[in-house]
Amino acid sequence: MPIRRDKRDRYVEIEVGAPAEPLWVRCESCGELIFRRKLQENQYVCPRCGAYFFLSAPERVASLVDEGSFEELPPPRIEEDPLGFSDQVPYKERLSRARVETNLNEAVLAGRAKVQGIPVILAVMDFRFIGGSMGVGVGEILALAMERAAEERKPFVLVVASGGARVQEGVLSLLQMVKVVAARETLAQAGVPYIAILTYPSTGGVLASIGGIADVTIAEEGALIGFAGPRVIEQTTGERLPPGFQTAKFALEHGIVDAVVPRAKLKEELVRALSVLAGEG
Amino acid sequence: MPIRRDKRDRYVEIEVGAPAEPLWVRCESCGELIFRRKLQENQYVCPRCGAYFFLSAPERVASLVDEGSFEELPPPRIEEDPLGFSDQVPYKERLSRARVETNLNEAVLAGRAKVQGIPVILAVMDFRFIGGSMGVGVGEILALAMERAAEERKPFVLVVASGGARVQEGVLSLLQMVKVVAARETLAQAGVPYIAILTYPSTGGVLASIGGIADVTIAEEGALIGFAGPRVIEQTTGERLPPGFQTAKFALEHGIVDAVVPRAKLKEELVRALSVLAGEG
Amino acid sequence: MTGEERLRLLEEKAAELRRLAQEHDLDLSAELAVLEQKIAALKRSIYAELSPWARVQLARRPDRPSGLPFVQALCAGFYELRGDRIVGDDPALRGGFGKIGGARVALLFHQRGTTPEEQRQSRFGMASAHGYWKARRIMEVAARLRLPLLTLINTPGAYPGVQAEAHNIAGAIATCIWQMLRHPAPTVAVILGEGGSGGAVALAAADRVLMLENATYSVISPEGAASILWKDAKFAEKAAENLKLTAQDLWALGVVDEVIPEPPGGAHTDFLGTVEAVRQAVLHHLRELSTKPLDELLRLRYKRYRHVGSAGSGH
Amino acid sequence: MTGEERLRLLEEKAAELRRLAQEHDLDLSAELAVLEQKIAALKRSIYAELSPWARVQLARRPDRPSGLPFVQALCAGFYELRGDRIVGDDPALRGGFGKIGGARVALLFHQRGTTPEEQRQSRFGMASAHGYWKARRIMEVAARLRLPLLTLINTPGAYPGVQAEAHNIAGAIATCIWQMLRHPAPTVAVILGEGGSGGAVALAAADRVLMLENATYSVISPEGAASILWKDAKFAEKAAENLKLTAQDLWALGVVDEVIPEPPGGAHTDFLGTVEAVRQAVLHHLRELSTKPLDELLRLRYKRYRHVGSAGSGH
Ligand SMILES: [Zn+2]
Ligand SMILES: [Zn+2]
Question: Mean pLDDT for chain B?
Answer without folding.
Answer: 91
